[in-house]
Amino acid sequence: MSETGARLDPATAFRFTVQFDDLPPGGFSDCTGLQSEVEVQEYAEGGLNTHTWKLPGRSKQGNVTFKRGIVNKVLWDWYRAIADGDFKARNCSIYVHDPSGANDVLEFQLVDAFPVKWLGPELGAGQNNLAIETMEVAHQGFTRRR
After folding, report:
1. What's the superkingdom here (predicted)?
2. Is 8 within the bounds of a domain?
3. 77-102 pLDDT, tens digit each
């Protein structure tokens, strides 16, 4: 029998931290593209005309996009180094915190991530917005640790 008052709430999506190996932890406003998909291979068996067999194929992952207000040029320097031919992949941990921020409730780890696209801020003299940088990273797969 379950305890009275015990419940498990879904994790909130607004409190998270991103850490790339040796870079300082990043406070990002958005993290999108955490997705994985298994390709389906169809096999038509001779003499079987009612259906085709569907079999799992390769797994593929999309790129992950991070957005944050510009506070320093660490991400730009990493992207620029790769664009200039100095390739360095880093593992990336994405920690999702509970509402208090004291405990991690989810952790995703991107393996061998590296930036493939950087977008600078949209600037406008008549606006009152933050300068936001966007970085898209490719990776060799990800795992969920919690």
Report:
1. Bacteria
2. no
3. 999 999 999 999 999 999 999 988 89
83 phi and psi, to 5 degrees?
-60, -30
12 — pLDDT class (breaks 50, 70, 90): confident
Within a domain: 52: no
AA identity, residue 139? H
At residue 61, what is the residue type? Answer: Q
The count of domains in the chain is: 1
Which residue segment(s) compose the domain that 113 sits in? 16-38+70-144
The residues pairing with 108 across neighbouring beta strands, listed in sequence order, are 94, 144
Q: Judge whether 137 lies within some domain.
A: yes
| Number of neighbours of residue 95 by Cβ within 10 angstroms | 19
| DSSP sequence for 75-116 | HHHHHHHHHTT----EEEEEEEEPTTSSSEEEEEEEEEEEEE
Closest CA to 66 of 127, 105, 17: 17
The CA-based angle 24-142-119, given to 5 degrees, is 55
20 CB neighbour count, 10 Å cutoff: 22
